[in-house]
Structures are given as C-alpha cells and as structure tokens.
Amino acid sequence: MDARIDFYPTHEIAGYQVRAGRPLPFGATLVPGGVNFSIFSNHATSCSLVLFEKGARTPLAELPFPLEFCIGDMFCMIVFGLDYETIEYGYRMNGPWDPARGLRFDETKILSDPYARMLGGRAIWGVEPDWTDPYQHRARLAFDDFDWQGDIPPQIPLADLLVYELHVRSFTKDKSAQVKHPGTYAGLVEKIPYLKDLGVNCVELMPIYEFDEFENSRVDSATGERLMNYWGYSTVGFFAPKAGYAATGQFGMHMDELKTLIKELHRAGIEVMLDVVFNHTAEGNENGPYISFRGIDNQTYYILTPEGYYYNFSGCGNTLNCNNPVVRAFVLDCLRYWAAEFHIDGFRFDLASILGRDANGAPLANPPLLESLAFDPILSKCKLVAEAWDAGGLYQVGSFPAYGRWAEWNGKYRDDMRQFLKGDLGYAGAAATRIQGSPDLYQWNGRGPTASINFITCHDGFTLYDLVAYNGKHNEANGENNNDGGNDNHSWNCGWEGASTDPAVNTLRRQQMKNAVSFLLLSFGVPMILAGDEIARTQYGNNNNYCHDTALSWIDWTGLTQNADMYRFFKNLIAFRQAHPVLRPKSFQDGLVSFHGTRAWWADFSDTSRVVAVMFDGSQARGGLVADNTLYAAFNMYWETLPFQLPAAPAGTLWHVVANTGMETPNDIFTPGQEPPLDDQSGILVGARSSLILIAK
Amino acid sequence: MAFTSSLEIIRNVAKITLTGRLDASTATQFRDLVDQAAAQKVKAVALLLKDLEYMASAGLRVIVFARQKMGVAVKLYVVAPQDIVRETIEVSGFSQAVVLLPAYDAAVIEGK
Q: CA of A418, closest CA in chain B: separation in Å?
C-alpha cells in the first residue's frame, strides 16, 4: 500500500507533509502513512486543522486547508507522519458572526470533530478539569484493531427480550459491589454472573457517549456535595465512548474495555442496548460553550427560531436539527459505527419525538431520519426504541412513526399500571388493555405487542421501592427547592411517608412491589426492569436523581441479602416468563387471552372495579405453533380479600399455584415442579392487594 | 528507568525482554522486535515484563499487532508483568489473546 502514488505527500503545510484528502468517510481516518481528516461546514469561509501533543494547551501546529483541498462543503486533507498515539486534533473555523441568521463562527475557538472516536479531557471520572484550557474536549485518533474472537450478537427476538436498565457507574461504584474496578465497564463485567442469575437478557446502558460530568456542576451549600451531570444526558462526543467509565480511560484503552464488556455480555447471551441522546447537545443555548457544532455550522446543526435563537424542544437549551440531510447522515453514520464497531444490539432514543421534527420544529408525518434508521441495512438487526415524546409537548406513544421497526417506551403502561396498583378507581379496564400489550395503541396501525416496551419504573422517577414508600417527591438534595422532577408519580406510601418500622407497612410494600413485577412479567410486550428494583433499592424519595455521584445513586448490594425475598421473587418470575411463550406473543394474533373477574368469564371493568383476572390459553401460544401451559392470574388491588371463581383448567390438567404475593416468602413463589395444586379447583380467596398466578398442568 | 528492549530466539521461542516505560515513543522498538520474531517463524513468543514499569496503549497495540500478525498458531506468553501492566491487559480484554504467566516456565513455553 505504501507504494501507492495516492499516499504520497504533495504539499508541505506548517512543517507537515500533506496532500488533498478524501471527503469520505467524515472524521479522522488512518490511511497508509498518515491520517485523512475530513470535516463539513456549509458556511465556514476557511478552516484549519489544529494539532496538539496530548494534553498540551498550546497547539503543536495549525494547518490551514488550501482551497484545492476543499470539495463542496468538505475540508479534507491527509497529514503524513503523525504519531497516532500522542496526537490530539481540533478545528478552527472562520466565517460570519451573524446570530440573527444563525451563524456563530468564532475563530478563537478550537472545535472538536463531531466524528471523533475518542475524546480526551475527561479521561478520569470526577477529576476537576483545567477550566483555563482553551480546548476542553480533545479529539484523538482511534484504532479498530480489537479482537472480537468471533463474537456474534445474540439477536434475541424482541418478543423474548427482557430489558434491564442500568447506569454503568452506579451499578458497581458502591463498595458493597465488591468488584476490582468500581464504577467502570470492567466492574460491570464482574457482575455478568449476577445478571445471568437474575435472568435478564438485555442491558440498556444509560448514556455512555462522552459527556462532561462537570457540566453545570455546582456545590450544594447546604450539604457541600458537588452536584454533577451524573446521568450524562448531554452529549459531548457522539462517536466517543465515555472514557471516565473505564478503569483504563487514563491509558486511552477505554474503547477496548467497553468492547470487552460487550463481548463478555454477548458470550453470556445478553444483548446491549444504548440509551442515545440525539435530541440536543451539551452546547446549550446561546450562552453555552463552543464544543463542536456551534462553531462548525450552527445553522445546519440546530433548529433555530427565525431570529436565530435556539428552539428548546429538549428542555436542555438547544435542539438538534435531525432532519436536515447533513445531520441525518451524521446520526446514521454514528449509529452505524456503534453497530458495526461496537457490536451494539439496539438503541433507545431519548426524547425521540424530536427526531421527527422538521427544520422549523414542526412534526413531520414521514420523518426522513426515522425512516432511514428503520430501513438501514447496517442497523437492520438492531432494536430501535423511542422515548416517544419530547419536552416541546409532542407526545407520540402509540403514534410514533414506526415503519414496522420502532418500538416505544410505553408511558401509558407505566401510568395505568401504577394507578391500578394503588387501587385507584377506573383502571381495571386500562390495566387489562396494558396486559394485552396495549392493542389500543399498537393494533390499529398493524403493529404488535412488541412495539410496547412495558415498564413501571425507569431512571426517570421513583424506584420501585420508592413508588410504594413515598406519596410525593423528595428532591431537596438536588438543590432546586424540590421544584424539579415530575409530580405525577401515581405513587402510594402504604400508610407512612418514607422508611417505616411498622411491620404491616413494610409487608404491604413488599407485597405491592411483587404485585408490580407480576403485572410487568405477565404482560404482553417487552418488559423493562430498572436496575436495583429487584433488591428494593431506594433513592429516599428522590424522583430526579440526575446529579448525585453518591450512595443516593449507587446500588447498595447489601440489599441482595436484606431483600433476598424480593430478589428471589423477581428471579423466579423472570424464569417463569421466559419458560412460557404464551406470555410472549409476537403479534396480537399470536396470543389468546380471556379476562375474568371475581366471577369466571365475567370481567368487571366498571369504574368501581379494582380487580382483573386473566387467563392465557396455552394451546394458542405463538399462534398455536408451540406447546405451552394455560396460565391464570388474578390481580386483586382492592383492600379486602375477595373470592375468585376460577375458569376450568384445560381437560386433564389441574390448577397449581405459581405465585401468591399475599404470602410470605418462600410461599410467595414456587419453582417449576414445586407448585402446589389447589385443593379447590373451582375457586380461591385472593388476599387484599395481592396477585395470584396459577399454572394448569 | 529508561526503556530497553531485547530479542533472543532459542529453539523456536522468541524471548522479548522489555524494561522501563513502554509508551508511544518507544513502542516502535518493541514492534521492530515483533517483526523480527515473526520473520523467524517462531512457534512461541514470550514477553518478559518483570522490569517493565508502565505500558501505554501504544504498547498494548503492539501486542494486538503481534497476535494478528503471527496468527493463532503462535502462542503468545506475557511473563511476570507488574500489577499495573497485568491489570491493564486484563481489563482491556487483551488477556484473552495471550497467556499470562507469573514466571518463565520452560515446560509450558518451550514444551520441554
């Protein structure tokens, strides 16, 4: 390759041997003897490549792109003889300063490459940055030489997926995690046996794109705690994994460490889904910093008002202009990179409705970006999941443009099941609809129950324990006078606000948590569990825990011992779901359910009902193509015990008890083969606020 | 300690000894030795790292290079790495491409 004439320098600029580069691919690409740099700007009048020694404040050299190195709106140049390991690079763009037209060029700024695969500047989590450094997020060159050892992504059908949402740092940061490298990708590798034991088959990682944990950080004067951008829903580098989440970030080995995590998860049969944030960037509004897009081509990358201000459909200061063709290609390139280079199995899009807005912010009927993602050949096996709303008031649960591919976080599932759980009137019918996979949302347009990602808790809002321990949010620690976080929690504290020493209160809470997970795991659709709920993790009533790098966020693994009954219940019910395809139909035609009440074959969805009973016909599992047992569940969310008349079990079978949340452990759930038969096959008393699950065999 | 490197080939085993700090500026020396060993068509490579204090990503990338250049038929042993080097190899996943040994074991490496 070195002999090829097209890899010989033709020019010398600032002491470096260079030649005209290639516009594709965008970003910095290693080529024989050098690096091809390629960057877009529609409005820049000139551009320089700025080279640094790793970590240096002063540039090593600045290389202006000669006119003959520009093709269309691309600046492209091959620079020879660079030391890949020690070089950092950025761009300096010149162009009009005309905010009213959306142009905000500032040649004093050094800008990160939007396609940078590695970023320096925040390599070790929590180490205070040098704020006087003129280049905070420093693009680096990356290698694609990881040995995947034949890794093949599990490609688990959506219908069989069981998602577990976790924060990489929170999962193992607490010393109770007892891992060698707390709070890192490597730490998470050590917890894979736990995930396997629990039985989940997909982890959804909260943002791992490079972000700045110090963005808007502040010290809480009352507590002295440094409040941070802990969750990371504010991207700095879309192609770059978060180095601070790696034990080896300081050595520049974080890509390898993350790939090792993914490889090991795949080896354990667990898929990896990324929570990706394309709705906005960390540059904020007109008062925010220059990191990348603002200085490269503000008018292209952001949705702007006619006056040149930033629309704020994200609630975070700016809105990415996702359906601009250039930005659309950027998003597509990014996801392709993660799918191809990191073997990622799926993406959950934060505030995804923004991805369907046009350049003026109006919702599109047929958004090109969403269509492109749905039909992209590289992403064809990746799950695509939308958080189908945004902060600008667009709410598309049930109507997100799906193209036969997109699933949605079903916010209505969460809200309806929470209200049913606490015994609110008028939710029995809604609960039955949600248990069926929300046909009201996903049948009319030909979608199936797998369009519904069912969840009762997620990172936003209360944990499961807090849902049954707090009536209201307690976000004082966030330093915003408890004004942040949602107020529509649909929670009930079971008689006492917060921690209680009353055994009756605590028993009821455990029962309610088991009821909630019973709803979740017996519903058609794709269940998602928030990490830690299985051991009754608390955030002490904080329902917007975005800023705490403390025990408030970290999983306390002593819960595994203290709440062993919760873990046992979750684990066994997960196994139960995975053993019974009748609970996992791929389409609404696949699964046959009948609803009942306290009387068999007599569902009561009236406004005074707090009861749902459901029978899953095993003979119709997967459209009758697979054999399964018939199952029955009675959910009594009334505050008194009620007698339930049972439908007859299929001929030749008897009803056996799988779970009864009204019972104390170990009689709350039984493993296969240990289920006791019912003495009375025609009826049973179901305790107050209890769930009963039966199997016919 | 300054970086030093040496190569010795005995009975089809290439022994590469590294000392000091292996970083981007010295990784090419290491790579040259790997190239020489590969040219000799050795059956095994032993990286003797007892006195290697630090290995930057550039050094680890040479191990990847060695693995990929020589193929899976050539065993690659990392012998007596210091804790920080061993941990970096393990955490970044390279330990799956090599055999980590606490000390030079002729029976294992040379098949004696």
A: 41
- Give the residue numbers spanning the domain of A650: 590-696
Instruction: Report which of A414, A636, A646 is spatially closest to residue A512, judged by C-alpha positions.
Output: A636
Q: Look-up: residue for tokens 């950080």?
A: A217
Residue A568 makes CB contacts below 8 A (sequence gap 6+) with A665, A666, A669
Q: Which residue has the tokens 């300063």?
A: A97
Amino acid symbol at A623: G
- Please state, in angstroms and rounded to a whole number, the distance separating the CA atoms of residues A462 and A174: 20
| Residue A607 contacts B, CB cutoff 8 Å | no
Distance CA(A423)–CA(A409), nearest Å, equals 23
To the query of whether residue A387 is one of the catalytic residues in this protein, the response is yes
- pLDDT value at residue A1: 44
Assess whether A350 carries a catalytic annotation. yes
Q: Could you read off the pLDDT of A264-308 as tens digits, one per residue?
A: 999 999 999 999 999 999 999 999 999 999 999 999 999 999 999
| Pick from A83, A143, A256: CB nearest B93 | A256
Residue that finishes a domain, picked among A111, A140, A169: A140
Which of A140, A156, A176 marks a domain boundary? A140
C-beta neighbour count of B18 within 10 angstroms: 26
Distance from CA of B91 to the nearest CA of A (A): 6
- Is B60 in Cβ contact with A256 (below 8 Å)? yes
User: Which of A85, A247, A252 is the closest to B91 by Cβ?
Assistant: A247
First to last CA, chain B: 34
Q: Is A181 on the interface with B (CB under 8 A)?
A: yes
Residue B88's domain spans which residues?
4-109
pLDDT band at A155; cut points 50, 70, 90: very high
Q: With CA atoms as reference, report the closest residue to A461 among A498, A489, A497.
A: A489
The mean of the pLDDT values for chain B is 90
Looking at the complex, report in whole angstroms how far the Cα of residue B27 sits from the nearest Cα belonging to chain A. Answer: 10
Low-confidence ranges of chain B (pLDDT < 70): 112
CA proximity to A521, closest of A441, A575, A460, A568: A575
CATH number for A87: 2.60.40.10
CA B41/CA B102 separation, integer angstroms? 25
Q: Which residues of chain A have a CB within 8 Å of the CB of B61?
A: 85, 143, 145
Q: Would you call B86 an interface residue with chain A, using a CB distance cutoff of 8 Å? A: no
Instruction: Give the number of domains in chain B.
Output: 1
> Domain count of chain A?
2
Per-residue pLDDT band at A4 (split at 50, 70, 90): low
B24/A85 CB distance under 8 A = yes
* CATH code: domain of residue B64: 3.30.750.24
- A57 phi/psi in degrees, rounded to 5: -80, -35
CB B22 within 8 A of CB B88: no
Of the pLDDT bands very low, low, confident and very high (cuts 50, 70, 90), residue A3 is low
Percent of chain A whose pLDDT exceeds 90: 95
How far CA A424 is from CA of A386, A427, A430, A533, in Å, comes to 28, 7, 11, 23
Q: Which of A345, A350, A390, A416 is catalytic?
A: A350
Asked if the model's pLDDT at residue A421 lies above 90, the reply is: yes
Query: Looking at residue A686, which CATH number applies to its domain?
Result: 2.60.40.1180
In chain A, what residues touch B93 (CB-CB under 8 Å)?
A: 146-147, 256-257, 259-260, 263
**Nearest residue of B to residue A86 by CA position?**
B24
| CA gap A364, A389 in Å, rounded | 14
Token pair, residue A199, equals 């039985």
Give CA–CA dist A30/A244, Å, rounded.
25
Which of A82, A117, A147 is the best residue to mutate to test the B interface, defined by the most B CB atoms within 10 Å of its own CB? A147
Determine the 3-state secondary structure of A180 from DSSP.
Answer: coil
What is the tens place of the pLDDT at every residue in A126-150? 999 999 999 999 999 998 888 898 9
